[in-house]
Each structure stands twice: as structure tokens, then as C-alpha cells.
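Homework help board

Subject: predicted structure for assignment chain

Our instructor gave us this sequence and asked us to write out the predicted structure in C-alpha cell form, then describe one feature. I got the C-alpha cells but I'm not sure how to describe them. Can anyone check?
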Amino acid sequence: MGLKLAPTARRVLAGLILRRLWIRVRGLRFRKRDASAVPPFELMRIDACWSLSMGLGIVDTVRGADFQARHLLLALRAGEPYRVARAVAMEAGYSSALGETSRRRTERLFSLAERLAEESRHPHAVALVSVARGLAGCMLGDWRAARERCERAEALLREQCTGVAWELSIAHLYSLFALSYLGEMRELVARYPTYVSEARDRDDVNAATNIRTRIAYLGWLAAGDPDGAEREVRQGIAHWSQSGFHAQHYFEMGSLTEVWLYRGNGAAAWQWLSNRWPHFRGSLLWRVERIDTEATFFRARAALAASLDPALEAGDRAGLRRIAERCAAKLAAKPSPVAKALGAIAAAGVAAGPEPGGRVITALAHAERLLIACDMRLHAAVVRRRRGELLSAPEGTCIVDEADAWMRGEGLREPERWTALIAPGGYHLRPEAALT
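My C-alpha cell output:
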């Protein structure tokens, strides 16, 4: 079909940038034509690019974005309404990967996609807009909207469409992402086994691997079983290609970092993450804003937890805290409210160093406000618990008990370990110093 696959990530990126520039120059104008008026080979090329942009989107995101740009340009040139609606919906989803800086453009694209989908009267186009909106909600930190859109998309896909296994898998995955950030862990643990079972029934390695490497371990940690969590991740990635570094390898990298943090082994978390970090950076996955934010938070927490290792020299521990401090500053500088909230958790962990002073409680209170504004209730409960640990009884004890009760209410058996996972730092070293 004359569609070439660039041999290197940088070549892909160069081609993607050129195509994106051309899209900006030509705009989204098109002359409407019936499918019967478009040469069949031209339609086949559009559909091939659609399949590639779908299949690679959550594997090799930059390559997927490149084929999406081709998909959009070919669809606009053909002018067939359903394919244009489909292409614009996917373009909005990819646009959201740039984060807050692209929010306005993303919303304009979705408005156009919704209008085109309704005009096309094609149920798949309508459902696809909801799928893409759910994905975009996760990319932009609109967790509750993401969950609602994914659930609506699933209903539309099941009731009105056929041959939509990929679309269902995306709706499932991003609804689980949203639940994890909302802190609705009971609902997450109740849902994901069904989604994995459905993926296995249709021999969908992609969907099963995504959930097993990025979501399912949380269920094992909720039950207080880090060994089961590690086993789940490793068995999930074992069915995936071991060459290159795809989104699935990134999921493995982050999930096992969190498993080690849950175990309280900061040195192992840092060693694991450090070994994988160069491969992650070389993959260009960090160009997805949400992934860059999440990975930076992984790095900050692993560095903070490792800095508590008494076997390290004082200079090495100080160096790890500096890494965490730089990560916190990077997150705070991002325009995303979610990034700022996660950065505030990391900043509080840095402040809880050898000489914390009263700024730790202030930093924790600031982080809690930001997290509540982002509807990230588990993270907020963890930060609130940390603050309670530093306050005198009975106030501090009451705050810790309330946070523990909330976490247990979501099915988390070991709130203290979840606290160490999400908000590591030297809080326990000199708690009296936090009040000076």
C-alpha cells in the first residue's frame, strides 16, 4: 500500500512532526463524498492506517501517533464522513497525550468529532468518540469524567457494534486507570478479573497484558500480598515481546517499583527503576505527558525510599534526596494540576529529611488540598495519615485512625504499607523535629 514503517524512533518522530505541521497548515477541511465515490484502494489505505494507529497506540505510542497523522490526512482527502469522524475522534485522543497545553485543541477536536459522528449516523463513530473521551480524561487527569465516558462507551459498543474488541479493551483499561487514581480500589478489584477473563477468552494478548502488568498487581497489594503482585506482573509481561521497550515494559517498570516500595525495600525499588530508566528514556514514551508525570513520580518516590537505607553513605543518601527534590520541582513546574499534586507529595517527602522543621506539616497540608481538588482520594488519605503521624495525640492519633479506616473501607488491608508506597520519606526518623 506504499505505507512505510520508519526504522528508528527518531525517524518516526521526525516524520510525525512534519505531518503534524501539515495538518496545522491545511486544517480539517474536507469535501464530503459517499464511500461509493472513493476508490476502494484509497479506502483500504485509510483503514490500514486506522488499524496501525489503533494497534500501536498503547504499545509504541509515537509510531501509533505517526500512523494516526497519516490516517487523518488520508481520511480528510477522501472525505467519506464515517472515516473522517473516526479519524478526528482518534486525533482528539492523541492530542490529549500532550497534556494541559493541548486541552483547548483537544476539546475543539472532540466537538468536531461528536458533530461528525452524529451526522454520519454510524454507531461505531459515536461509540468511538466516547472511548477517545475516556482515554483523554485519563490523559488530562479528569478521572471521574474518564470513568463515566468509558462506561458509556462500553454500553454503546456492546449494544450497537460488532468487531470492537480493541475499543472495548481501551474502555476497560482506562476505566481501571481512572478508578485507581480516584482511589476506588474495591470497584477496581471487583472489575479487573472479568476484563482479564474476557481478554483471555478472545485470545487478546494485548488487553490481558495491559491489565496484568499495570492494574492487577494493585489487587494483590490491596490484599497484603506483594509476592502475588510481583508474580502477576511477571507472568503478564512473560507473554509479551522482550525486544524493545513498549508501553507494556513501562507498565512493568512502574508496577514492580511500587511492589518494592510496598515491601519497604527502597534500595531494591531504586535499583530496579534505575536499570530500566535508560530504556524508558530511549523509547520516547516520556513524550506522553501523563507517562512523563507518572514516571517522574515513580523516580521521586524510589529515590526518597532508597535514601532511608542506613547501609548507604551519607553523601549517597543526600544525592538521592537531591534527585527526589529535582523530580518534585519538575512536577511542580508542569501546568497539570495532577502533576502539581504529585509533586507536592514528593516535596513533602524531601522536607521530611534529616532536618525537617515545621515545613513538613505545611507541605503535607498543601499536598492534601491539591489532591482533594484533583479527586485523588487515596493519595489524599495517605498524605493526611502522614500529617497525623507528625501531630501529637490525641489529634494526630485521630487523623491516622480516620485515614486507616478510609483505606480499609476501600479494601486495603495494610494502610501503613500503602502510605510507604505513595508517600515515602523520613517521617518516622525524627517526628518531634517536625513540630519545632
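Reply (TA_rk): Your C-alpha cells look well-formed. For the description, you could write something like this. Residues 430-436 have pLDDT under 50 and may be disordered. That's the kind of observation they're looking for.
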